[in-house]
Amino acid sequence: MEKLVEESVAETLRCAGGEAVRLYVAACAERMAPLFVGLRAGAVGREADLDLYVGAVRDLWFTDRPLSDAAERVRVLEQFPELRPSEEGISDVAGTYAFFAALVLRHALLANVSGSADDAVSCGHASLTAMGMLDQNAGGTAFRMDEERLQLQSASGEVSGLWEASVTAGRERSAQC
Predict the structure, then answer these.
(1) Using CA atoms, how far apart are residues 151 and 155, in angstroms rounded to an integer?
(2) For the packed helices 18-40 and 162-176, what is the interaxial angle rounded to 10 degrees?
(3) Would you give the DSSP letter of residue 82?
(4) Tens of pLDDT, residues 39-75
(5) How do residues 88-146 score in pLDDT, each as one tens digit?
(6) Nearest alpha carbon to residue 21 among 139, 123, 138, 140
(7) What is the dihedral of CA 60, 65, 69, 75, to 10 degrees?
(8) Is the dihedral of CA 117, 172, 73, 40 positive or negative?
């Protein structure tokens, strides 16, 4: 399978590890958060899922150490309907983007704990895939290109303005769904 994440990003993450990996995945998860929250807000019985999602994204920004409860959060996240296989599969637009947002968070939490560049690359890959689909579905957008740029920035360790850029990008994406 072709890797969507630029090799320079993957190599930087492999060399840097630890805190750099945690910063990279925190930024990826932040950019996807408005999709999940926007698409699942108001859904009956999903309040705890939204709380877990928002809290996990917030806590991922504490990049100086792995989250002590990341494994438990992954266990709970894997019970979300978006990540539970069904015979019907996911056929609606909202379900598709909520799935990718949940998948990005899952990979981000795994990378946060492991410090693994491979887990981080999986996180970035899921985000790029979702943005490529959003570009195709929204027509005339450049979300995938923007995601590539922001992934390069976050892998470089340049933290100045990264959170703000990630929040803005997430809001712009959410407005398209």
Answers:
(1) 6
(2) 30
(3) G
(4) 999 999 999 999 999 999 999 999 999 999 999 999 9
(5) 778 788 899 999 999 999 999 999 999 999 999 999 999 999 999 999 988 888 999 99
(6) 123
(7) 60
(8) negative
Contacts with 35 (C-beta within 8 Å, 6 or more apart), sequence order: 97, 98, 100, 101, 130, 170, 173, 174, 177
What is the identity of the amino acid at 90?
I
Domains and CATH numbers, the chain: 7-176 (1.20.1590.10)
Rounded to two decimals, what is the model's pTM?
Answer: 0.93
**Two tokens at 36?**
């999940």
| pLDDT for the residue 140 | 81
Q: Which residues contact 141 (CB under 8 A, 6 or more apart)?
A: 134, 135, 176
Identity of the amino acid at 120: A
C-alpha of 146 from chain center: 14
Alpha-carbon distance 170 to 165, whole Å?
9
Pair 108, 116: CB distance under 8 Å: no
